[in-house]
Amino acid sequence: MKQIITRFLVALLLLTAVETDAQTSTFILMRHAEKDTTAQGSTMMQADPPLSADGVKRAARIPDVLKAFQPDAIYSTNFTRTKSTVTPLASKSGKEIQIYDHRNLRGFAEELLKMQGKTVVVAGHSNSTPMLVNLLLKENKYPNLDESVYDTYWIVTVTDGKAEAKIMKY
């Protein structure tokens, strides 16, 4: 009987000593760079303006700003300004920009949370980016960005289902 108890205790110790490999997912969420608000022309141009000269410069800096990260995927809404914002990063990292639907942020957040152990960069808008951060955190923490704010991004890390966010500036 003593031997059975000893074996049981040894087995129990071995089971509790086994470490689970917690995988951390990293999501870098940013608003598009400055858009060109002086564009004249069609309604389509006004609804989907390109980046301004300052926006192009900001987008060009993103690979350096995020040099500590190796993105596994890069996502953007299907707008010129968001795609242009992450194009320099996509070129440098050899990744294709994947399009997500900003009208279905809940579904996109669920998709992102399934990407365990990955680093994903997401370009969005002044309202959709903070909302997506909130969905990943599962709490309503961040309000929409002011229309004049282009230098803010979030790094959301998720480990064992627990999400944390840091606000960054560049």
Let me know the average pLDDT. 89
N-end to C-end Cα span: 66 Å
SSE order? HEHHEHEHEHEE
Report the count of strand segments: 6
Largest sheet: 6 strands, mixed
**Low-pLDDT stretches:** 8-20
Number of helices: 6
Structural category? alpha/beta
Percent in strands: 15-25%
Sequence of strands across the biggest β-sheet? 3-2-4-1-5-6
Q: What is the 3D form?
A: elongated
Rg to the nearest angstrom?
21 Å
| Proportion in helices | 25-40%
Note down, in words, how this protein is organized.
This protein is an alpha/beta fold. 39% of the residues lie in helices and 22% in strands. It contains 6 helices and 6 strands; from the N terminus they run H-E-H-H-E-H-E-H-E-H-E-E. The chain has a 6-stranded mixed sheet with strand order 3-2-4-1-5-6, sandwiched between helices. A hairpin with a 2-residue loop joins strand 5 and strand 6. Helix 3 packs parallel to helix 4 and helix 5 packs across helix 6. It is elongated.
Descriptors for this entry?
single chain, 170 residues, alpha/beta, six-stranded mixed β-sheet, 6 strands, 39% helix, 22% strand, elongated
Short description:
Helices cover 39% and strands 22% of the residues. It is an alpha/beta fold. A six-stranded mixed beta sheet has the order 3-2-4-1-5-6, sandwiched between helices.
